[in-house]
User: Fold these one by one.
Assistant:
Number 1:
Amino acid sequence: MQTQERSNKFEKVNKFNKSVLDKISAYKTYEEFNNNKDCYKYCHHCKSIYNFEESYPGISDFCRMLVRNLHEIKYSKDSKGRCGYLYYWIYENAWKLFGPDWNKIHGKEPIVSLFNVGYNVINELKINECFYNYDTKISFEEWTEKKDLHDYFENYDSIENIIESFKKEGNNKYCEYFTYIKKMYKKYIRKCCRYYDHYNYENKCSDYFKCDRIYYPNEFLCKLRCSSTESVDSSSKIVKNRVSEEQKGSGHLNSEMNTNSLGRAGLLETQESIINELMKDPFYIFSLGGFTLLGIFMFFFLFYKFTPIGSRLNKSSRRKKEKEYNVKKEQRKEIVYSNSENRNINVPKGRVRIAYQSS
């Protein structure tokens, strides 16, 4: 009876989001996770769970669905994205089963056995992106807010593509949804995002929040022409306020801090992006090749000019040229002498021109 009541509570919470996001295929992932299709194939993974079925009815089905979902994620195109949905799906089903007992049984059976089944399958299938640290002390309200933010950010692009269709159906429920998301956004941006300027930031909640200002929901509220009692804040203003708060908290921000404080993964990703863009630029490719050749020539010039080996090579080359010059000089003398003794040759009047070949 208690399990059914808890399920009804979740249905009431989810109904609001479903009314807005039911057109988006990614959101239907939760429905796919909840069906019993092919679960019988994974019974052997859940043998350690069956003993708890009497105390926690439905735990066996939950276990089999978990194993089935992990196998399907392994072979999906977007395994990382589906792992994010799975995380919140596990929380929801755990609350339906254990309710207020969630914290009491943490660290004990059956929750340990259930999570161990999942971790063993994750290791077996090598889908490390599905590993999460499950916080069993989180409140139902906080979990709901994080799940709603996760679903909003994950479906942002799809919402943007179909926002025009929302106008035709009437704006009330959609305005209510985006007003709620805006409220959650403003609440969690303080916790999750540390901005160093308008474009550089550190995200502490990447599993359910995105700090890029393009995701601020005010754009959707404007497109739907929603009337709101709240002031209409731009994303730039929200970020500017956070930057100001960070500056007050830290005293000042200098360029060194701005560079060094960013998350390493974010810096690497930015650097990789810059490199990729540069490599696509024909001028950059041409310049890179030119500078490479210039560098090679400069290296050999310095090597030849200033190193002992280069000096010896230079002396050897000069000796060789001097020797060749002396040989040619002697040959020219012999030719001139031979011509002067040849009486059969008519020497023209005027000056004698001798071709001189410079070395």
Note: Strands lie at 193-195, 201-203.
Number 2:
Amino acid sequence: MSISLRDQLLKAGLVNQKQAKQVGKDKQKQQRLAHKGQIELDDSQQRAAQEAMAEKVKRDQELNRQQQEKAEAKARAAQVKQLIEVSRLPKLTTEDYYNFVDDKKVKRLSVNTLMRNKLSSGSLAIVHHAGGYEVIPREAALKIQERDPQRIVQLNVQTEEVAAEDDPYAAYQIPDDLMW
């Protein structure tokens, strides 16, 4: 039969009888208190596991938020694309051009007289689409502006032509052949 470690240490003279009894008493006391629940066991591992779990939950929430933002941005881009494609006016091939500024550069679109007047009055707008420009109605442009303001190139403030009573130049006619 094998001899316990305590007995082996006693035989070798590494500990004396008093030290061996003290260790035995301490061990029994620990077991008794642990059985009654009066001693707090080492819960550092539990705390570490809880902290790791909380960190994982936080990380997962952040990833979910980022994925949700990407999905919302993609949905907004699809809505803008659909709005433009549904409401754009057909492109014209006339010699009459409408000049506008985009990114500090003067660009031009082929338009007719009616489109020019509506662009100037704010009834029509110019937007970026597929590397080019499209002319769309004001209502569609306002919806696009809510979703992606960078797509709007030109949206003039809508003006109502009201004849001013005190207009000092009312008597002077403006020539029709001037193009701005």
Note: The chain has five helices and five strands.
Number 3:
Amino acid sequence: MVHITHNKHRLLELTIHIICWGLFFGFPLFFTQDDSGSIDWREFINHSGVSLSFFVIFYINYLLFIPKVLFKEHTGQFILLNILLILVVSIGLRYWHNIIAFPPPAPRRPHLPPQYIFYIRDITSMIFTVGLSVAIRMSLRWSATELERREAVKSRTEAELKNLRNQLNPHFLLNTLNNIYALTAFDTEKAQQAIQELSKLLRYVLYDNQETFVPLTKEVEFIQNYIELMRIRVSSAVKINTNFQIRPDSQSPVAPLLFISLIENAFKHGISPTEPSFIDITLTEKDDEIHCVIRNSNYPKNAMDKSGSGIGLEQVRKRLELLYAGRYEWHQQISSNQKEYSSILTIKIPDNNKKILP
């Protein structure tokens, strides 16, 4: 990908050079026509010498002096070389005008200003040409550096996301297997049903989770399958309410398994074997935003219980920063009576991201 982008960059640069210099060398054709409309080739060659001198100065700087001298921070040497180059080219240009470009016979020559006036004009134009060459070359250098920086950031972000996904998969599977293991101790029939539900989850975790984004409909389907699995495990006394308000054909891109850690956290900390418990899960899609609101009864685990270590939530925060930096809001709060916990996540999806998915 980087190689293709670099080739396009070089092709664009070459095209611009050809067009600009083609126009520059072609301009004398419009200024050297006589009254009959035919080209005065003597005048054309005379004007072409100016174009050629600028061409030489521009590319000696562009291809040699700037990359080999200026970019290596030899500024004094760069200035000295250009002084010598401009003097040589300006003398050569005067020689071109006076001898090579078929000057008219002496008696026909009009009265001309002193020679030094032409030298001043030519040297000033050549200094401008050097400045233009430096400006263009430095702009292209900055553009190439910026491209490399963006590619490096992109590669680093992709590596971090892959690492987080690799951590999340075993974390999620371990929690799910622990839930199924708990069922085998007292209800083998439910355990078998749970294993069937787990197979649906595994397909998503192993395949769709490898993508950076998936359609929101797929993520919701996965969440629903996970909730059904948890319904098998928990007591019927636990009130689990869900509300999904999304378009049936929604293609809004969302990071896979982004919400599951929040839901896992609700099941870890929201259920008590002896006290009334509830879990409310709401996921809505509105315009360019996705809202996830999870409320549950609050029963914090004790220090000996490692199931609520918070690894999943920390991964959620890291993924949000990598994928939705500046485009999300996540609030966690506990009610004043300490009996209800809420997690509210809002993700803003730019319009141009609506078409990420096929």
Note: The chain has a mean pLDDT of 76.
Number 4:
Amino acid sequence: MSETDIFVYSALYDLSSGHKQVLLFNKGDRFIPIPNCSSNPNWAVCVDKKGIVGYVPYTYVEKKQVSIQEFIWLIDDALEKLHVDSPSISKLTREVIKNLTSLRTNLLSSNNCKIKETKEENNEIPVNNNSPVVDSPQEALNPVLNSNESHGSSNNLVGKIVENAEESKTQESAENSALKTTAQTETQTESINDFNVPNWLVPALVENVRHKTKISHENSKAAVGIILDTFLDAIPHLDILWLRMKKNLTESEAIEEVAKEVVHSEDQRKLLDIFKQLWYCKNDEQQRSWPVHEDEDLISGLLVEMNNIFIDANPRVTREVICHDEYEMVNLLVTYYQMEPRKTLRIKMLHVLLTICELDMGVVTQLLNSVLPMELARDIQDNFEDSDKVFHSTFLLSVIFSTGEKPPTGTYDFINKKCLHFLFEKLEDVAKDGDEDVGQNLLSIILAFNLHFESPQENIVLETLKEKQSAQYLTERLIFLLNREEDPCKVLSHNKGTTNSVMKFMVDMFTFPELIDLFYLNDIKVLLDIIVRQLTDLLPGEKKRLDYLCLVRNLLRNSNYEEHLHQLEGLQKCFKFILSQEFPDEDEVTLVLEMAYEFRSWFKNI
């Protein structure tokens, strides 16, 4: 096998749902391809980093070359994970194990041959160009014309023989030295194989780079990775050591958890110190019931430093500080925000709260069940002319509701019909004024708040919207976001599993004919074009495809579709395709058959 044939697949996009035999992955994930296991030209059989065997669509991946040593290591890791569930493995998995084992044997054999050839080339004795030269027959027959000349030639010949003998001896000594060095190197390599990299070593390297250079934790990890790659290229006979350290670097989260008793973080010390100072400031102002305005620069500096550490430091360290003592630091910031009247400090606290929401999902839950949502809702309504403050308040409020978690009952005392009317009204106003950023945040609050309502019939957001005569910006923006497959509520990296807020809002709206009437006919036709395209392109079993089927069912059921029948032929083709798939999804098939029965006059031929 040539080195150009050694590659892995790297994911170009996320694939979050699909058939049970299809692997789920994120962009950048790598897979080991298994040759000769797939009969479908559009799918590859692969093993992912967890040792799970499944199908991957070729359109979602690209080839990435890797070294033989790294590929062997990946195969070893995959085989180890595959053998864990050996009592209950499937026929496909057994075939994969057989292929990987065979591939590993071939690679090791190929690698050993190259090493052997290299050693043989190094040990080969070069031809000595200075060896004594035997005279030709013609020269041997020539008479000696001058005895002095003959004596001189004899002396030269003796000198050459001595010189050549010395050179030969020197060369032999050098060869013996080289052989000795090679033997020593092999012995050293064998001893390296037995060397265990301490768990604390790589985390300590990253921490030292972060502390000394002040660059972020992620950049510090990248720097250490570059250094290890350089060592791997420059000192290849220690490749096992460098690859072990690189593995520890890629699995740093688990390694750091083990090594945290040894590796102490400077960021953790600084955060605890800032927290202590803010606690004193808060209690000092609380006791006097008025702020000492001269401390504004001090508190502002502490909040800025705290935010920078949360952004740049090791997430494991910062999460540990945040979660300490049942989120004591989060509760302190909420209390401080509630009692702090100064705008500049309030905005900086909002910055910090937004940053820590990204670090830990528990922070979002903590904020949702605090007084902060009510405080933010009041801020938005009372200070809407202050665009800077409103921008940050609306953004944080949308983040707090973006998980779809049900808020406490007291939340509805503040975020009620009056508040929602205000949000819908201001959404249309800011769109006319051209303030897109605040408008996007207002829409995000509405979409995010709608996520936790399970029944459209008991949804205060939809009840409020029914009282509106028009919602042009809202409806146009919903179609735009759906077409672009964008979800403004997906702002947290650890919140990918939540329902798409735009899709849920559309499905909920189309449950009621009076809400469908808010859309122009042209918008409905554009929506049908989007639905047909997505039903054609999406993979079987993807949740989005089932969502589009739910949406089109509500549209057919609650709108005046019979007046225009736009994309009827396209829908018929999509339904036929879903029913004739090689790996059909049961929920999709059930929904299509229900629609075919309910709207028999339109889908009688499928």
Note: Residues 115-170, 172-189 have pLDDT under 50 and may be disordered.
